[in-house]
């Protein structure tokens, strides 16, 4: 008779002497997981039984079906899935086994099917996909506030490049990455794309913190701390890629800095290496008018067209910024299935311009959101990036309907994953995807009342509203306590390096 009860769906109302049992046919009420004393003809006593009721009648009495054991249940939250149908489940739950999501449904249905070795009650909070930061330079958190209110080239050439030349080392990179990882975990980023030096050190620190990363080893024409020549940088990239080739959290990438900081042969070599190793490519693209002017003066082409002439573009390529793009440029990027990272805060702070995000989206380009490095933002809060992206494009379009809240949320989650070619694995809460998710408090004064959780996530919520961060099924932060990093040690280490940075730019 166990099969009989398995035919009933979770009831419209459930009375639990434990948890509701799974079923297929809709009924009005299930009383389940109790010691059922039937007083029937055989005087059965069922140690763990259930009674299915439809209307006024009992339709089945039997053993309650066994529940599947899983590693973690997150239950009773407002589940914002960002799945294909954009479901929002008012009282939902997510079942996680190991690194994977195995079910997303209403809380009673999940409780009926699964028994968690650990359960987190998210009552009143939003459960959502982890945020995907499609562009940053993690260790540059140690340059946060070093130089502000400058044009990009002045900022780079007078402050950042000299400071990097004097301070960047494997130890600096490790300390900066740990600080960035702490900030990202605390503010809800679960996956990030990076471009910097000593990327193998960034990868080790990222993996130790439990975050997911698409990490690009920077290739640049002039001598930098980890490579004196582009050839040396490419060799370092290959070693890095091979070390992390099978890693569950780290995706190695090659990151040619930009078309204006590399010659044509090196750009071709970067693409060839990526193709040979089957790794992604990350590059800055058309960030400033100066870059477009340089391309025009040297090659009589736009940056996009120049790179297209080299055979550079291809799938699994992520272009950061894309501020100054012509309609023809957008057509090339769409045809080549290039993802784009939109960085509204950095672009506004450096007055670089406004990326044609709506035109790119209409062309079918996957456009994700990024913070850029904290030296030009000056934080890594992706909730802030969502809000600023929505506001900026409403203003430039003179249309309050531009980049509505659901689209901004998609750009920070599933579209960011698409831009990096990872949407089959992350970016939404769906069975079969990696268990990268957040529990976000909605209890503050500024979040009260709440009529629409998606609106609140974009227009009201901040990074410090994140209560719990989970990546690959592992809890990295619970109730605002980070479990994978020693917070005080990380901050002390960062402050020690700050003294060296100050000395470097005096």
List keywords for this structure.
single chain, 506 residues, alpha/beta, 35% helix
SSE order and pairing:
Layout: H1 2-5, E1 13-16, E2 29-37, E3 45-54, E4 57-63, E5 68-70, E6 72-80, E7 88-97, E8 100-106, H2 107-113, E9 114-116, E10 119-121, E11 126-129, E12 131-136, H3 152-167, H4 170-187, E13 189-196, H5 199-209, E14 212-219, H6 230-243, E15 250-256, H7 264-277, E16 281-285, H8 289-299, H9 303-309, E17 317-321, H10 327-335, E18 339-342, H11 344-349, H12 357-362, E19 367-369, H13 382-397, H14 405-412, H15 414-419, E20 437-440, H16 453-459, E21 466-471, E22 474-478, E23 481-482, H17 487-504
Parallel strand pairs: 1-2, 5-9, 6-10, 6-11, 12-13, 13-14, 14-15, 16-17, 17-18, 18-19
Antiparallel strand pairs: 2-3, 3-4, 6-7, 7-8, 11-20, 20-21, 21-22, 22-23
Q: What do you see in this structure?
A:
The chain has 506 residues and is an alpha/beta fold. The chain is 35% helix and 26% strand. It has 17 helices and 23 strands. The chain has helices at residues 2-5, 107-113, 152-167, 170-187, 199-209, 230-243, 264-277, 289-299, 303-309, 327-335, 344-349, 357-362, 382-397, 405-412, 414-419, 453-459, 487-504; strands spanning 13-16, 29-37, 45-54, 57-63, 68-70, 72-80, 88-97, 100-106, 114-116, 119-121, 126-129, 131-136, 189-196, 212-219, 250-256, 281-285, 317-321, 339-342, 367-369, 437-440, 466-471, 474-478, 481-482. Helix 4 crosses helix 17 (487-504), helix 13 crosses helix 14 (405-412) and helix 14 (405-412) crosses helix 16. The longest helix has 18 residues, at 170-187. It is elongated and about 95 Å long.
């Amino acid at each position: 008779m166990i099969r009989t009860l398995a035919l009933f769906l979770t009831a419209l109302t459930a009375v639990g002497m434990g948890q509701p049992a799974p079923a297929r046919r809709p009924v009005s009420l299930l009383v389940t997981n109790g010691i059922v004393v039937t007083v029937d003809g055989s005087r059965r006593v069922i140690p763990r039984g259930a009674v299915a009721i439809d209307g006024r009648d009992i339709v089945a009495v039997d053993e309650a079906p066994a529940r599947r054991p899983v590693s973690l249940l997150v239950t009773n939250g407002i589940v914002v899935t960002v799945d294909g149908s954009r479901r929002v489940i008012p009282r939902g739950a997510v079942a996680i086994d190991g690194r994977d999501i195995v079910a997303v449904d209403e809380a009673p249905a999940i409780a009926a099917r699964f028994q968690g070795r650990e359960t987190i009650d998210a009552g009143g909070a939003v459960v959502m996909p982890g945020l995907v930061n499609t562009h940053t330079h993690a260790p540059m958190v140690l340059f946060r506030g070093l130089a502000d209110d400058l044009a990009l080239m002045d900022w780079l050439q007078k402050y950042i490049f000299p400071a990097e030349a004097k301070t960047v080392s494997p130890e600096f990179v490790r300390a900066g990455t740990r600080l960035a990882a702490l900030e990202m975990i605390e503010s809800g980023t679960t996956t990030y794309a990076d471009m910097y030096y000593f990327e193998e050190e960034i990868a080790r620190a990222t993996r130790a913190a439990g975050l997911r990363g698409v990490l690009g080893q920077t290739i640049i024409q002039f001598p930098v701390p980890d490579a004196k020549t582009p050839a040396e940088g490419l060799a370092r990239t290959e070693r890095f890629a091979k070390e992390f080739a099978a890693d569950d959290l780290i995706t190695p990438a090659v990151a040619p800095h930009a078309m204006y900081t590399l010659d044509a042969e090196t750009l071709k070599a970067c693409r060839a290496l990526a193709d040979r190793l089957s790794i992604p490519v990350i590059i800055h693209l058309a960030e400033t008018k100066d870059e477009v002017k340089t391309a025009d003066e040297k090659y009589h082409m736009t940056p996009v067209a120049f790179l297209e002439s080299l055979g550079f573009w291809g799938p699994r390529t992520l272009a950061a910024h894309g501020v100054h793009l012509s309609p023809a440029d957008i057509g090339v990027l769409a045809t080549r299935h290039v993802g784009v990272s939109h960085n509204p805060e950095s672009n506004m702070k450096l007055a670089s311009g406004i990326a044609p995000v709506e035109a790119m989206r209409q062309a079918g380009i996957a456009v994700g959101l990024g913070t850029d490095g904290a030296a030009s933002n000056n934080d890594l809060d992706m909730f802030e990036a969502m809000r600023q992206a929505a506001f900026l494009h409403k203003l430039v379009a003179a249309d309050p309907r531009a980049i509505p809240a659901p689209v901004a949320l998609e750009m920070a989650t599933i579209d960011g994953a698409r831009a990096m070619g990872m949407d089959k694995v992350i970016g939404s809460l769906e069975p079969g995807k990696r268990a990268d998710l957040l529990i976000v408090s909605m209890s503050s004064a500024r979040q009260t009342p709440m009529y629409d959780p998606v609106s609140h996530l974009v227009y009201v919520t901040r990074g410090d509203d994140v209560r719990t961060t989970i990546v690959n099924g592992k809890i990295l932060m619970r109730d605002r306590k980070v479990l994978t990093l020693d917070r005080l040690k990380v901050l002390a280490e960062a402050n020690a390096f700050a003294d060296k940075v100050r000395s470097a730019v005096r």
